[in-house]
Design goal:
The protein is an all-alpha fold. Helix content is 71%, strand content 0%. Helix 4 packs parallel to helix 13, helix 5 runs antiparallel to helix 6 and helix 10 runs antiparallel to helix 11. It is globular and about 60 Å long. The termini are far apart.
Length: 264
């Protein structure tokens, strides 16, 4: 049981569920069953939980965040080009978990700065860390600007396209996959990483909130509590590059297959 609970094995478990979820996304117009989407609900919480642990132990946080940001850019641009080259009116490629992990990572960094300010009784550092929390919100400026200009018929379409691309390339808590809820969950996992029961409690509370507000089946993400409880804190074999490559690759492959099947 202990070997099954390393970070590597939990990631492998999560990506298997993720594949089922994305099969449902790409092949829904062809009758993919809804239970495939059910299987994918715990994926985001599991990966955010592991990301919080990984951020704590990483030796170079700047490199870690840069890798996620570059991954987000590659994902956005490549998905955009793929949809241009091979259109599929039934599927919109908005998947970009890299942007969510990057934004959550920023808040993990801000949290450490805040705690360091408290330990050193440095009021300037405390205030600075609080103000920095607004930066990922302000990154949504291109989206708000595009919305405000949409009422002006004299603005050329190229401007809106540029603003739309900027909004996708600049991660914000309002535009990343999963939105504010997943960013907040990742930050909470990091702040509470010493207390597993508290992490699971936050996940459970968010699941109840999601169900009470919107219903649906997103609340099933609470099932991530089981693998979280079984995690033993060990890294395992790693396979870091595999995970970074597999995520975009499997989405693009499934998209291509779905588009070709739709056109045949």
């Amino acid at each position: 049981m202990k070997r099954l609970c390393t970070a590597t094995n939990l990631k492998l478990f999560a990506i298997i569920l993720m594949v089922f979820d994305h099969i449902h996304q790409m092949f829904l117009p062809m009758g993919a069953p809804l239970w495939l989407a059910y299987l994918g609900r715990p994926v985001f919480p599991i990966l955010l939980f592991l990301a919080a642990d990984s951020f704590h132990y990483t030796h170079n946080r700047r490199k870690y965040l840069t890798r996620l940001l570059v991954g987000s850019w590659v994902m956005t641009i490549s998905s955009f080009l793929l949809q241009k080259l091979l259109p599929n009116p039934n599927v919109v490629l908005m998947n970009n978990a890299f942007s969510t992990f990057f934004t959550a990572g920023l808040y993990m960094l801000f949290w450490d700065c805040f705690l360091d300010g408290i330990r050193k009784k440095d009021a300037k550092k405390i205030i600075a860390s609080i103000l920095l929390c607004f930066v990922p919100v302000l990154m949504a400026a291109p989206m708000f600007l595009a919305a405000s200009l949409s009422f002006n018929e004299n603005i050329p379409g190229s401007v809106f396209r540029m603003l739309a691309m900027a909004a996708l390339l600049v991660p914000s808590v309002l535009t990343v996959e999963g939105g504010f809820a997943m960013v907040a969950l990742g930050a909470a996992f990091y702040a509470l990483r010493k207390w597993r029961w508290a992490q699971i409690a936050v996940l459970s509370a968010l699941s109840v909130l999601v169900y009470s507000v919107s219903g649906g089946f997103q609340w099933m993400m609470v099932s991530a509590a089981v693998p979280m409880a079984l995690y033993n804190g060990e890294k395992g074999k790693g396979f870091k590059q595999f995970f970074y490559l597999f995520y975009p690759a499997h989405i693009w492959i499934l998209y291509i297959l779905a588009a070709l099947m739709q056109s045949s």
